[in-house]
Amino acid sequence: MRAGAFAFDLRLTTNDLMTNDVHPNSHYHTPMQNTEPTERTVYSVSELNRTIRGLLESQFPLLWIEGEISNLAQPASGHIYFTLKDAKAQVRCAMFKGRNQLLRFRPANGQQILIRAKVGLYEARGEFQVIVEHMEEAGDGILLRQFEELKARLAKEGLFDEKLKQAIPELPRQIGVITSATGAAIRDVLSVLGRRFPSIPVQIYPVAVQGENAAPEISKALFQASRRKDCDVLLLVRGGGSLEDLWAFNEEQVARAILLCDIPVISGVGHEVDVTIADFTADHRAATPSAAAELVSPNQQTYVQKFQTFQLRLMRQMSARLERLNEQALWLQNRLKRQHPSSQLMQQSQQLDDLIQDLYSSFESLITDKKTALKYSLQSLLNNRPDQFIDYQQAQLQDLSSRLVYMSQLTIENKQQQLAGLSRTLQAISPLNTLSRGYSITRDAAGKTISNAGQLQKGDIMTTQLNKGKITSRVEELISEFPTLK
Whole-prediction pTM value? Predict the structure, then answer.
């Protein structure tokens, strides 16, 4: 609570207490009943002071009071006594040893301070006083209070939650630095990056790091870097200074811009003892700008040593594998010797030599040049050309052609024999043979065969087919039945 925001009136008289009334402007109630006493109540001085002290301590909460120190006294007991005053009034203050040991500065007469205290009364003298619980310098004190209030509010919203923190890349492709282009921080950062891993490019986002324009420019740079995504990590750095100098990094808009940034942010603001809201919101905090640069840049020598270690390990593994393959090849060779005939053994031995040669060639090609692999691939293609397969297929084609001609001739002969047999059978049952024995076939004018006299009428024309020739005649007489043979 700011000074002057709370007013009170301590003008209690003996008559007020005797009548159990309190001042009409007070905001508290006494345990006494507001009735006319039936008899006179007499207080001792100590009872009076004790009652007033109880009223003061029970009705007033802890207050924030701002003023100037005067009449400062620091006796051997370790307590601090002083008067806190402004232009119109003053009040006695006491800060006991257990509290003043926590002070971060040395109080002095004429110094403007801010205290958190409770209202009380020194009973032995009947003097109104305040008991100081906390004291801070007025200038930075206000800023510290604003810092703590914003910190508590943002923490309650979850802006400092560890689950929101992004991982810092082990080997960034490019590093972004948001700071003043002319300050000592950028020189320290570039010096560290150049010493540790000079091949990593650096993108600088120049901004004001102090003053009214600092917070908007820092926020804009964070949004711009997040949108462009040129960098894998961002350094938000500034050299040391007072709390007021560093205040841009305690602004809420900067904290929220860090939270919304898609790129991991490392804060390195001020010296090791300086702490800002940006440190809590950032994905990682470094004590100084140089420490931030060291955190984000790997040690080049470490990577060189790692590469050398990997190279040695790879060579050892390849040598071990080559040894195992050689042992396997020797085992296969011995097995082939045990299972010969000699011709097969010679062929397998030759193939084994080829495989060993191919193994060495493949190993060398992986280390030197892929052209060797192409050469052996072409050689393998020539060794496996399809000439023999084509010759074999052509021989089969000729054999099948000969068999086709032979089977065709055989089929024609069989069909000719079948045709001759069918011709003889047809000849045997042909009507012409019947006619050659003296029979004939008679047809009417329409060519229909006549088998019954009832099919004709007198005067009809009919044709008789003989074995040789035809006879056309007219019907003169019809006899329906043949005479019965007796």
Answer: 0.42
